Amino acid sequence: MDLFLPLILIMLTCSTFAQDNPPSPGYNPSSMVDSVTFDQAYRNRWGPQNQRLDQNSLTIWLDQSSGSGFKSIRSYKSGYFGTSIKLHPGYTAGIITSFYLSNNEDHPGNHDEIDIEFLGTTPDKPYTLQTNVYIRGSGDGNIIGREQKFHLWFDPTEDFHNYAMLWTSKEIIFFVDDVPIRRYPRKSDATFPSRPMFVYGSIWDASSWATENGRHKANYEYQPFIGRYRDFKLKGCAIDSQQTCQPPFGSQAGGGLSHQQVVAMQWVQRNYKVYDYCSDPTRDHTQTPEC
Q1: Which of 38, 65, 74, 107 could form a disulfide with 238 if both were Cys (CB 3.0 to 4.6 A apart)?
Q2: What pLDDT sits at residue 41?
């Protein structure tokens, strides 16, 4: 009987470890994309006094005077867009730290957007990662978001982790440390963004909605709120690229996700997804026919 005890303990340990970490996706798209320096791809967009670049590690922060953000030099019609981010610990309610694609400046009130947003939180609760897709609609009170929200299987304040979006003509895939967490397929032209977008990152005060629908607001006794970015990954088809330009593949075989990647994504969706707009009974799903 005693001989089996160490084996049982090992099995229990492995089982616990497996529950806390996603299955291997078997493919690391970030390793297929070379890193670029910040200055090669981006410029300050706003709040330059709250932005510091040190050996290609970018720090942006929010205080009572301002937040800060950056924007890509070029506009893209497809591609892989990633960066490693380390989030601010402690009380961050009301604060958004983001990395996203948008053409809002070109199409105000009628823009497209693909979002990775970290919704600030209180110290007793985990960060929420919100993914979102907008298609030709964000103005005049006609905001139609396609949100899926996730908790993470690690503490995003302890270290840098890679977050990325792959946008092709057929689908959008969101990755966390190369694990796909969400796939948004193209089902029709009306439900898929196709106009060129710039890449952005920012930190800002969204107290009206960011944390528990605005229940908890930004508290500047805890300022500054800091977002750290490094390891910028960008490989896309810019607006002036030739027609033959193709974005990177999401899987080793090319095209969409492999079976192993789908299994990893399903694990995340099953264990860490906390909101899906398609499952929200309060939403008007005539506005989101893909559901």
Answers
A1: 74
A2: 96
In a domain, 270, yes or no: yes
186 to each of 9, 173, 289, how far by Cα in Å? 46, 11, 12
105 included as an active-site residue: no
CA distance 185 to 167: 10
Number of domains in the chain: 1
| CA 178 and chain centroid, separation | 12
Asked if residue 139 has pLDDT above 60, the reply is no
- Choose the catalytic residue: 105, 113, 147, 158: 113
Partnered with residue 44 across adjacent β-strands are: 70
Q: Find out whether 280 and 195 touch, Cβ atoms under 8 Å.
A: no
| pTM confidence score | 0.92
Torsion of CA 86, 179, 152, 16, to 10 degrees: -120
* Structure tokens belonging to residue 120: 């600030």
CATH code assigned at 58: 2.60.120.200
Amino acid identity at 268: V
pLDDT for residue 19: 58
Domain contains 87: yes
Report the pLDDT value the prediction gives residue 148, as an integer from 0 to 100: 98
**In sequence order, what are the residues at sequence separation of 6 or more whose Cβ sits closer than 8 angstroms to the Cβ of residue 89?**
157
Of the candidates 105, 117, 147, 290, the residue annotated as catalytic is 117
Q: ω into residue 23 within 30 of 0, thus cis?
A: no
User: Catalytic site residue 117?
Assistant: yes
pLDDT digit string (tens) for 150-181?
999 999 999 999 999 999 999 999 999 999 99
